[in-house]
Amino acid sequence: MKHLFLLATAATLSFLSANAQSDANTTVIQGAFQEFNSNGGRTGVDFHAPEATIGSPYLFDKWVKGTVVTATDTVVANPGYRFNYNKMTGVLLVTQDQQTYIALDKGSFKAFTLSDPLGNLHSFEVVRSVNPNSFVEVVTKGNKYAIYKLIKTKYKKADYRTDGLTESGDKENQYIDEFEYYVVNVSAKAAPAAKFSLKKKSIKEAFGAGGPNVDAYFAQHKDDDINEAFVKELGEYLNQ
């Protein structure tokens, strides 16, 4: 996808000052966005995958509502802003008019929450013990355990082949999501992140010290499918 780069300074200042609200929060919100060292104003983004392509590099197929926590702990919560997240580059995009947007510098904010079209919240933050260079999605977080999901999206080009007798490969280009799950014992000092898969044995090993309670939860939900929802509810159970 090609983007038309505009003059960074002019575009960013115009973006930040346009449609300024007159309430008491305006100065705080605009000041917070000015902390961001944007990559320049851009236009022409299209979240819909081209024909013969499955999946997308973006988290959503449209701009969505959201909030951002800056590196200085300022919460930016302006209903006029819309966001989307590029899963491949880890870049958060923000717009006011859904045409011109800026890509926020990763080092200038440490967390963000996006609301999907159904109203479900997706929170992301930097967890250095998981990956210091990427945002990870919060599956659940409490006073004992935090569970995170690292999203890795890869592009696979169509590789269909046929000799008239046999066929191989895929006819469509694909953006393929891969998920890695981690648990951090937040009640322990400088606890490392333990990676696990959506398998009973892997989950029990990752939670370690929570063993008895993990065993109890599995016993109570022995017929449940082990998926992300199961892990989320396990975390909430352990954080009680």
What does this structure look like?
This protein has 240 residues and is α+β, with helices and mostly antiparallel strands. The protein has one domain (4-199). The protein is 20% helix and 34% strand. Strands 3, 4, 5, 9, 10, 11, 12, 15 and 16 form a nine-stranded mixed beta sheet that branches. Strands 1-2-8-7-6 form a five-stranded antiparallel beta sheet. The chain starts with a strand and ends with a helix. The model is unreliable at 1-29 and 35-39 (pLDDT under 50).
Could you outline the blueprint of secondary structure elements for this entry?
Elements lengths: L3 E2 L2 H10 L8 H10 L5 E3 L9 E2 L10 E6 L4 E2 L5 E5 L4 E5 L4 E4 L5 E7 L5 E6 L8 E7 L3 E12 L4 E2 L4 E2 L4 E13 L7 E4 L3 H8 L3 H10 L7 H11 L2
How much helix, percentage-wise, in residues?
A: 10-25%
Q: What is the rounded distance between the termini?
A: 46 Å
How would you classify the helix and strand content by structural class?
alpha+beta
**Beta-strand level of the residues, as a percent range?**
25-35%
Instruction: Please provide the count of β strands.
Output: 16
What is the string of helix and strand elements? EHHEEEEEEEEEEEEEEEHHH
What's the helix count?
5
- Please indicate the count of domains: 1
Shape field: globular
Report the C-alpha radius of gyration, rounded: 21 Å
Mean pLDDT score = 82
Unreliable spans are 1-29, 35-39
Q: Major sheet, described briefly?
A: 9 strands, mixed
